[in-house]
Amino acid sequence: MNAPRIEGGRGLPMRAGAVAAVALLLTAVGAAFDVRRALLAYHTAFTFWVGIAVAALILLGVFHATKARWPVVVRRVLEVIPTTSVLFVVLFVPIALGAGRLFPWLEPQRLDADLRHLAEHRAPYLNLPFFLVRAAVYFAAWVIVSHLLWRWSVRQDREKGVALTAWQRRLGTGVLPLLALTISFAAIDWQESLDLHHSSTIFGVYYFAGSFLSAVAVLILALYALRREELFRMLNADHWHSLGKLLLAFTAFWAYIAFSQYMLIWIANLPAEVPFFAHRTQGPWGAVAVVLAVFHFVVPFFLLLSRDLKRDPRRLAAVAAWQLALHYVDVYFTMMPASQAAPAPHWTDLTALVGIGAAAVAFAARRLRREAAVPVGDPYLEDSLRYQPQ
Predict the structure, then answer these.
(1) Is the pLDDT of residue 320 over 90?
(2) How many helices (H) and strands (E) does the chain have?
(3) Domain ranges of the chain
(4) Of the candidates 41, 159, 152, 158, the residue with the CA atom closest to the CA atom of residue 101
(5) The whole model's pTM is what?
(6) Phi/psi of residue 7, nearest 5 degrees
C-alpha cells in the first residue's frame, strides 16, 4: 500500500518549539526570584512527562511481546512518543545541577534529628554520585531501546519482510523487565526521595500505573489530533474501542494500586511511613486526595463503561484529556512538600508543564513528519486495518 504521511500541521514543530522556549525561559525567570520553588515546579513537570514517554515504550513492548496485530495501524504514532527520551536527557540537566535544593538527603545537617537519622541510614543509596549514575543507566536504557525499535520499524517500511518484525518482537519482549525496573527506581529516586518519610514498597508500581494510563491517553489524543489525516480514516470504531478499554483498565489499575499503597501504610502504622499520608489526608491536601479519588477514578471509570463512548473518538479523546490532566494533579500531589499546610500553586508550575510538554511535542512531531504515518512494511498491517474483534 502507499505510505500515508502527515500532511497538515507543517508549522507545528516550530510553533511548539517557540512555545517551549518562551515557557522554559519564564520558568528560568521564576528561578531568579525563588530558585527552589521554580526547580520543584520544573522537576514535577519533568517527572510527569518523562513517565509518559517511558510508559509508552512499555506499552509498545507489550504490543510486541503479545504479537498483537490490531494496534499495528497506530504503532508509528506510539513509537515516536518514547523517542523523546533523548530530549529528556538534556531536560534533566537543571535537576542534576539543582539537586541540592530539591532533595533533603543531600544536606542532612539541616534536617531535624529524625529525618537526619533516615538520611544517614540511606546514604549508601541516596548520595549524589550514585544518584547520577542511576539516572544515566535509566536514560541509556530508554534511549537505546526506543531508538532501536523506531529505527527497525522505519527501516521495515523500505525492506518489508518479517525479519525486522521478529527483531522488534524479541527486543520488545526481552526489555520489559528492564523497563519495569528502571521506571520503578526512577520513581523512587525522583519522587519518593523528595520526602524521607515517604516509604512505600509499591510506589514504583503506582508511578507506572499513572504514567501508563496517561501514555494511553496521549496516544488517543495524538490520534484524534490527526483526525484530518489519512491515518485517522484508517481507524475503525473497533480500534477506538480497544484503546478505550485500555484506558478503562488502567483507570481501575491506578485506583487499585493507590488504595493498596494507602492501605498497607495505614495497617503497618510505622512512624517512618505514616507522616507522608497523614499530611495528605487532612485539610486542603485531603480535599485534593478526594478530588483524585472521585475525578481520577470514579467518574472516568463509569464514563468508560459506556461502549458507545469508547467507540466515539471525540468523547473518548475528551475523557483521555481529563485523565491526563488529573495525572498531573496526582504527580503534583505526591511531589509537593507535605510540610505546607495547603497546596500552594505557583505560576512556574504552569510554565514548566507547558514548556517541557511543548518541547516533547515539537521533537515528536518533527520526527513523525519525516516518516510514513503507519508502518507500511509490517506484514500484519492489513490484518490491523481489517480489525474486528470476535
Answers:
(1) yes
(2) 20, 0
(3) 12-385
(4) 41
(5) 0.96
(6) -95, -35
